[in-house]
Amino acid sequence: MTDQVGAILDEGPSDWQIVQQDTRGLADIALRGRWAGVPKGRVQVRLVFEDTGVAVTHSLDWQDAVTAPDGTWSATLKDIPAGGLYRLETRFNPDGNVAGEWSPRGDMRHFLGVGDLWVIAGQSNSAGYGRGPVYDPPELGVHLFRNSMEWALATQPMNESTNTKHPVNREAANSGHAPYLHFGRLLKHALNHPIGLVQTSLGGSPLCAWNPTEPGDAVLFKNMVHCVERAGGSVRGILWYQGCSDTCNDETAASYAQRFVNAVGAWRQALRNPSLPVLTVQINRVYQPPDEGVNRRWSQVRECQRQVPKKLEGIVVVPTLDLPLSDGIHISPAGNMLLAERLARAALGAVYGRPVDYLAPDIRSARRMADGRTVELTFAPVTSRIDTIDPSAHSFKVEDDAGDLPIEKVVYTGSDRVRLVLARPIYGRGGVHGGFGHNPAIVPMDMERFVPILGFYRFPIE
Fold it and tell me: Which tens digits make up the pLDDT trace of 404-421?
């Protein structure tokens, strides 16, 4: 193979890379390289639209790099506007050359964008284990930093491990469908700039693998930070779906909220962003033989996930209890498409400040009524009414100091309130659960938006 001639690019963006924009909607790209096989002169660089070849801005048209006598050069393309796709061009312009368009060749980079990067983190439903067909096509401007540490057009499966450079999150089998390609596409359409996705998930991973404040090596935390640094060093937020593995014992389930708060603090410190947004998915369900301990632990983890946004700013929790599965625990491709829409709305509302309804209905109060045998639950936000598509099923459970308190009837009032008619009066302290257990019955929804309530655990009855 012969040596290359002209301007050679050694450090800079790669094909398909999305560069994180700053708060002004701009980005800088630093370049370094060599020049060889040509007479004395200067290296020049520019940035053009990939589809037209027109300079992105006047200031990003051909400009001289700093060309050193030792055969090296450097330049910085400054104030690149969010958008794309762009093409980076270089050339070597010999001294005295007046025909710039025929200058000796230089390296190029294609399909570049400036926009926002989102990290994909968590376990199997984040890595994407959905099985079966769905229309979820790739799209220019939604790109993926793959496990090969190379940028590419984002496609399913997103956590496949061809030429992986970090086997710490290599799946034992080929992964399947994930929600995040559709998430990226929805954001790109709404925001009109490219979206980059950085996949770091691993099926079955516990929170401690992501949390350096816990005992152990936190290998997936280290891998996530490494991937972000290699992808450019800055991201807009984290997409987090994890918690199933922490339902395995009482201690990890009960302590999930504080450990997750600690993990988010460590992520924000490591990624140098004290307000880094984290969009959290509340764990869905699992089909397995019933067990009271398992039921409680799944409910406890959901409650912890529900509570974290009340403890820490910049956290949003998204509901899933209505989403279909493609096996015993993994959300199906159709369910993932709906989850992607909820995550995109959460991002648009909470992160980008768009006027959209994105919060799920959440329990606000549980009040014992005058008859002593009815508990009225209030939810918010509710656009129309809390109701159910299956009046014969309910996912509530009530307990008091005497133990389980059977529910005789669930009354949907056509408003933001639901009434539970109990078999006997409450004895002592009472608490109510919603979406209880590892496989709860159909949960109520805000019917106007068709968004289910967040699962909750042992909410005190006033």
Answer: 999 999 999 999 999 999
What digits encode the pLDDT tens for the residues 333-376? 999 999 999 999 999 999 999 999 999 999 999 999 999 899 99
* Residue among 237, 318, 312 at smallest CA distance from 283: 318
C-alpha gyration radius of the chain: 26
Q: Which domain holds residue 331?
A: 114-351
pLDDT tens sequence across 367-398: 999 998 999 999 999 999 999 999 988 899 99
Token output for 413: 């009032």
Is 1 within the bounds of a domain? no
Q: Can you read off the two tokens belonging to residue 101?
A: 């368009």
**Domain termination site, one of 351, 373, 397:** 351
- Within-domain flag for 357: no
Is there a single domain that holds both residue 369 and residue 318?
no
Torsion of CA 308, 312, 315, 319, to 10 degrees: 20
Q: Are residues 86 and 123 in the same domain?
A: no
Q: What is the 3-state secondary structure (H, E, C) of the chain?
A: CCCCCEEEEEECCCCCCEEECCCCCEEEEEEEEEEECCCCEEEEEEEEECCCCCECCHHHCCEECEECCCCEEEEEEEEEECEEEEEEEEEEEECCCCCHHHCCCECEEEEEEEEEEEEEEECHHHHCCECCCCCCCCCCCEEEECCCCCEEECCCCCCCCCCCCCHHHCCCCCCCECCHHHHHHHHHHHHCCCEEEEECCCCCCCHHHHCCCCCCCCHHHHHHHHHHHHHCCCCCEEEEECCHHHHCCHHHHHCHHHHHHHHHHHHHHHCCCCCCCEEEECCCCCCCCCCHHHHHHHHHHHHHHHHHHHHCCCEEEECCCCCCECCCCCECHHHHHHHHHHHHHHHHHHHCCCCCCCCCCEEEEEEECCCCCEEEEEEECCCCCEECCCCCCCCEEEEECCEECCEEEEEECCCCEEEEEECCCCCCCCEEEECCCCCCCCCCEECCCCEECCCEEEEECC
The C-alpha atoms of residue 120 and residue 169 are separated, in whole angstroms, by: 12
Work out the pLDDT band at 426, boundaries 50, 70, 90.
very high
- CATH for 409: 2.60.40
Does one domain contain both 122 and 242?
yes
Threshold 0.90, pTM exceeds: yes
Residues 234 and 378 in one domain: no
